Amino acid sequence: MDYIExxxxxxxxxxxxxxxxxxxxxxxxxxxxxxxxxxxxYKEYYQSYISKKVISFNKDILYNIKKMYLNxxxxxxxxxxxxxxxxxxxxxxxxxxxIVTNKKYxxxxxxxxxxxYENLDSIIYDLPLEKRKYVxxxxxxxxxxxxxxxxxxxxIKEDNFLINDNLDVKIxxxxxxDVSLGDKNYILAHPYIEKMQQNKIIEMEYRLLRH
Length: 211
Hints:
Layout: E1 2-5, H1 8-16, E2 22-23, E3 27-33, E4 36-41, H2 42-50, H3 59-71, H4 77-87, E5 96-102, E6 105-112, E7 118-119, H5 129-148, E8 151-153, E9 161-163, E10 169-171, E11 179-181, H6 184-189, H7 191-210
Parallel strand pairs: 1-5
Antiparallel strand pairs: 2-3, 3-4, 4-6, 5-6, 7-9, 8-11, 9-10
């Protein structure tokens, strides 16, 4: 796994940038280069910099960062490395490209920028029923592939899938706390994980087909 060290001034520049690509519970996505996004985690950055030095930030940004600091989990380096290793055997092998650090603290990741793709729910409801079923089958194939390699996403919803005009589908946001990693023995010891995942798939399939 590659590591990209950012200077504090570079990180601050990202956080002050209003042109965000996406924003979630754990962090904010910005364009890093033409093919790559940078996801900066609120809590990790609060720990490494904001808590040690007063800087000029918008109060809302400070509030969000501090909230993430209080709610997120620390020290996910090993987990990200393990996840990336497992993903290397899948069709999502380029999803996580590097770990981003500031003063040697992990504050985010670099991930693939699927620029020609849109959120699943922005396209799928305009498709005829047969094509929607085709997309759902592709989603199930992605999840089955991840399952085979010991990656168990539980937050299965429209926001975590992207689609293009050719109906190619990509899964995103696999670096969160709602993704479990393990082997067959892990699943045998935690059978509720597979059940939860299947229930999430059924719920999303119902939403996508009912329109």
